[in-house]
Design brief:
By secondary structure, this protein is an alpha+beta fold. It has a five-stranded antiparallel β-sheet with strand order 6-7-13-11-12. Strands 1-2-5-3 form a four-stranded mixed β-sheet, with helices on one face. Strand 11 and strand 12 form a beta hairpin.
Amino acid sequence: MDDWDILEQELKKACPGMKVCRNEPMAKRTTFRVGGNAAIMVFPQTEQEAAAALQTLCRMEIAPFFLGNGSNLLVSDSGYEGVVVKYSAVLHPQERDGVFVAGGATLLSELSTAAAKSGLKGLEFAYGIPGTVGGAVTMNAGAYAGEMAQVVSWVKVMDGQGNVETIPAESCDFSYRHSAFSDGKRLVLEAGFSLAPGDQGEIQAKMTELLTQRKVKQPLEYPSAGSTFKRPPGYFAAALIDQCGLKGLTVGGAQVSEKHAGFVINRGGATCTDILTLVEQVKERVLAETGVALELEVKTLGV
């Protein structure tokens, strides 16, 4: 019996009803559709299961990786020799004490749709972002001049010892694609959003408009992790890449999208190595020709 067998037994003992998977293919857990297997993946369905799982991992001195929808993640071809925790508790968006509340596992599309149906505006920008509430809060996700920092009221998190705390927005340290939770040491259980009353029809129309823009401008027909690079101060990554004539640049199954230069896409059969090699070529060319250093926005695991 190896160490992973022992850990699997300990997790199942601590959480008898919790789903625990060995050698879970990460390619099916990320929107890039690449990556090897995670040694163990666990799916706590309640706060109690999450606490028991994290306490078990803490006792065995293993730091977990918290996974949302995998929409901003690139996993190594050799996989991840560690434990991935995918919090799967269902908490449908609802109003509570004047705040719109959603679980960390809630998809942003569900969150923004529910807010619109309740006649609440402020989350229209999030409609087409393919992430979860937990992931979006953690990276302060944004689009079309909106971001999580503008609407988050508080965030309920659990640390590696299973302790739960509610953090007010002013203590979340939000900045561009960053929050106090970006170090990956706390699991987002819930988030509360401060939204304003609005006309349901107008809110829905705005969401539809933004989604249409996405479909027209972005290569949604291919697997990707969205915007590959962070926005450099004073510039737009896509414009710089396009300026350098890099649209269509290909390495293996990875390509700089011909539709939107800010996206590296998986045209079919791409590996993590293909994607990272292409990313480095883009960074080198842009730096050499424009003097601007691009920074990867996509998170990596096992690389």
